[in-house]
């Protein structure tokens, strides 16, 4: 006995009765959530290659539970409701273009950076959070002028595309438009760009594509400083998108001016 | 006995017992107030300051209030504070000479608190002792080592010796010392090591790993490969990356050298040829050759 729910989306609300289990394949993440009376068992594993076509959940009758496999969450709420909510990474993401990108003086570019999403599992009518897990294990990286000052971020290799034409919709990734303006008199070499993922909001298009708020980075005329601002609302390309999750950290209210090396490298 | 009792009676009759009780009350209230104020201070500053500063501030408040209470009580008993302080000054010089070590520790403690080279919760190494700081007191610092031992280190030692703070910065470098056989292609091994570091999520992508050819050993090419990781992941990164390097070396046939020796008869000759001989076991069973051992004289194959 198997059934497929919510054909367009892998996230949202699902009903898994005691004795049933749900199976998801979201990018490289294979997730198995099993419900027994008073207990939710969560098992996850990561494949080497991301799945592009089989990301729909399968709710099926559970076979005999394997003892010791997965994490067990004991909850008083006996409801069958399981909620999967995509979230953005809990730290900033540093995108390194696959090949060097240069922005000449006075130019403005708009790039697309795609990043894997996190997943929040909650159960019951009260939406009690069980756990949060990434759909892909990202490598750590350090972003700062030296090894004493800086912050821990997630490392990401990005194509930094200029257009999304012909791009396959990846259900496990959210796209961030990054607008970069170089007002200085010299060429701006983008070796690494810091995207403040934890300060962005997440939006979902009806097609299932995930978007984040747009980020604007501007290098000042003297070249020593750079400003960061985060647009409110969904980006231009996804005006029909609905908000899914707000920012994890409060974004700066105004334009934040920082040393150049804290935003670009 | 009766004389002593009559003296007490005379004291009580004079009304001075009331002064004595008042001083005692002042002291008790002072102690209670000191404890309450110190606890309130800790609650107030704990969210604003780190554990170390909070503790120092809490103690300062406690000792200040207790000091005031003692001074007031002494004043009520009729002691003149100016005279007492003068006496205390002379006494402290005498005590200072008598207990130089304690005084030295005390002064060192004040300098340590001011210097802020480490604070409560940091992991430090002093000499061969490594552990987490539990408290920094006026005379000594208390550590909990990783095998769960309680270590007290006098402040004087901390001032004089090298102290390594292992948790000052959020990232740390793991230095891996590796040896490969002389015949191996160094650039190929370099690429292999970088790909291993790239695949390990605990290994920071930036700062980039460091590859150094340390030199040529007697049997090997010695390498240093240094990778960066989060402070909390130091041990896990070290273990996983050594394991992954071993697997990668095995998978790509990179030889890890072992000590070996070539024997030559002279500088220009070929190595001495050795032939293995099959030996028949001694009929009496008293042969000296172990099974499979070779003997020079006949070729085994």
Description:
The complex is a heterodimer of chains A (265) and B (301). With 265 residues, chain A is an all-beta fold. In chain A, 0% of the residues lie in helices and 51% in strands. In chain A, strands 10, 15, 18, 19, 20, 21, 22 and 23 form an 8-stranded mixed beta sheet that branches. Chain A is elongated and about 65 Å long. Chain B has 301 residues and is α+β, with helices and mostly antiparallel strands. Chain B is 47% helix and 18% strand. The longest helix of chain B is centred in the first third of the chain and has 30 residues, at 16-45. Chain B starts with a helix and ends in a 50-residue tail after the last helix. Chain A binds chain B through residues 94, 96, 137-143, 147-148, 152, 155, 192, and chain B through 169-171, 198, 200-207, 228-230, 233.
Please describe the structure with a list of short key phrases separated by commas or semicolons:
heterodimer, A: 265 residues, mainly beta, 8-stranded mixed β-sheet, 5-stranded antiparallel β-sheet, 0% helix, 51% strand, elongated, disordered N terminus, B: 301 residues, alpha+beta, 3-stranded antiparallel β-sheet, 8 helices, 8 strands, 47% helix
Number of strands of chain A: 23
Shape of chain A: elongated
Helix and strand sequence of chain A = EEEEEEEEEEEEEEEEEEEEEEE
Strand line-up in the sheet with most strands of chain B:
4-3-2-1-5
What's the N-to-C terminus distance of chain A?
Answer: 54 Å
Which quaternary structure do these chains form? heterodimer
Low-confidence stretches of chain B: 284-301
Radius of gyration of chain B, Cα only, in angstroms? 37 Å
Mean pLDDT of chain A: 81
Structure class of chain A: mainly beta
Tally of contiguous helical segments of chain A = 0
Percent of sequence in beta strands of chain B = 15-25%
Classify the secondary structure makeup of chain B into a structural class.
Answer: alpha+beta
How is the topology of this model organized?
The complex is a heterodimer of chains A (265) and B (301).
Chain A: E1 2-4, E2 12-15, E3 20-36, E4 39-51, E5 58-61, E6 71-74, E7 81-87, E8 93-97, E9 101-103, E10 108-116, E11 118-123, E12 128-134, E13 140-143, E14 151-158, E15 173-182, E16 188-190, E17 193-195, E18 202-204, E19 210-212, E20 215-219, E21 225-230, E22 242-245, E23 256-259
Parallel strand pairs in A: 8-14, 15-19, 15-20
Antiparallel strand pairs in A: 1-5, 2-7, 3-4, 3-5, 4-6, 7-11, 8-17, 9-16, 10-15, 11-12, 13-14, 18-19, 18-22, 20-21, 21-23
Chain B: H1 2-13, H2 16-45, H3 51-76, H4 81-98, H5 100-115, E1 123-126, E2 129-136, E3 140-145, E4 150-154, H6 155-160, E5 163-165, E6 171-181, H7 186-199, E7 210-216, E8 220-230, H8 234-251
Antiparallel strand pairs in B: 1-2, 1-5, 2-3, 3-4, 6-8, 7-8
């Amino acid at each position: 006995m198997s059934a497929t729910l919510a054909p367009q989306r892998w996230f949202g609300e699902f009903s898994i009765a005691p004795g049933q289990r749900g199976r998801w394949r979201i990018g490289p993440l294979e997730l198995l959530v099993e419900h027994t009376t008073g207990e939710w068992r969560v098992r996850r594993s990561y494949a080497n290659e991301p799945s592009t076509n089989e990301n729909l959940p399968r709710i099926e009758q559970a076979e005999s539970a394997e003892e010791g496999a997965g994490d067990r969450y004991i909850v008083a709420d006996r409801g069958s409701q399981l909620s999967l909510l995509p979230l953005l990474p809990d730290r900033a993401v540093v995108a390194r273009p696959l090949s060097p990108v240069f922005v000449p003086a006075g130019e403005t570019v708009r790039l697309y950076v795609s990043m894997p999403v996190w997943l929040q599992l909650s159960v019951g009518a009260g939406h009690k959070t069980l756990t949060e897990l990434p759909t892909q294990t990202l490598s750590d990286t350090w972003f700062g002028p030296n090894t004493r000052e800086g912050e821990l971020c997630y490392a990401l290799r990005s194509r930094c595309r200029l257009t999304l034409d012909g791009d396959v919709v990846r259900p496990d990734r959210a796209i961030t438009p990054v607008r970069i303006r170089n007002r200085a008199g010299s060429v701006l070499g983008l070796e690494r760009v810091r995207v403040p993922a934890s300060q962005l909001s997440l939006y979902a298009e009806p097609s299932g594509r995930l978007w984040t708020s747009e980020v604007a980075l501007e290098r000042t005329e003297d070249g020593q400083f750079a400003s960061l601002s985060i647009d409110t609302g969904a980006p231009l390309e996804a005006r029909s998108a609905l908000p899914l999750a707000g920012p994890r950290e409060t974004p700066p209210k105004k334009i934040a001016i920082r040393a150049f090396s804290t935003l670009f490298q | 006995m009766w004389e002593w009792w009559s003296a007490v009676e005379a004291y009580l009759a004079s009304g001075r017992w009331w002064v004595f009780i008042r001083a005692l009350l002042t002291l008790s209230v002072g102690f209670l107030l000191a404890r309450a104020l110190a606890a309130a201070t800790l609650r107030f500053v704990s969210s604003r300051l780190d554990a170390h500063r909070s503790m120092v501030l809490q103690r300062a408040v406690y000792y200040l209030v207790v000091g005031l209470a003692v001074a007031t009580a002494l004043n009520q008993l009729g002691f003149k504070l100016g005279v007492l302080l003068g006496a205390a000054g002379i006494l402290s010089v005498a005590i200072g000479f008598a207990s130089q070590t304690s005084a030295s520790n005390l002064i060192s403690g004040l300098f340590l608190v001011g210097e802020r080279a480490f604070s409560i919760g940091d992991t430090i190494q002093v000499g061969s002792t490594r552990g987490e700081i539990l408290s920094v007191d006026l005379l000594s610092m208390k550590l909990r080592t990783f095998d769960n031992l309680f270590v007290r280190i006098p402040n004087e030692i901390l001032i004089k010796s090298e102290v390594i703070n292992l948790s000052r910065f959020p990232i740390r470098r793991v230095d891996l010392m590796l040896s490969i056989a002389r015949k191996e292609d160094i650039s190929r091994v370099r690429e292999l090591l970088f790909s291993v570091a790239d695949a390990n999520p605990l290994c920071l992508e930036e700062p980039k790993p460091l590859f150094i050819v340390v030199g040529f050993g007697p049997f090997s090419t010695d390498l240093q490969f240094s990778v960066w990781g989060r402070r909390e992941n130091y041990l896990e990164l070290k273990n996983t990356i050594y394991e992954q390097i071993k697997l990668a070396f095995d998978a790509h046939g990179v030889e890890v050298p072992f000590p070996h020796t070539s024997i030559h008869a002279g500088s220009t000759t070929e190595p001495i040829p050795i032939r293995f001989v099959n030996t028949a076991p001694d009929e009496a069973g008293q042969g000296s050759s172990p099974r499979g051992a070779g003997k020079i004289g006949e070729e085994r194959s």
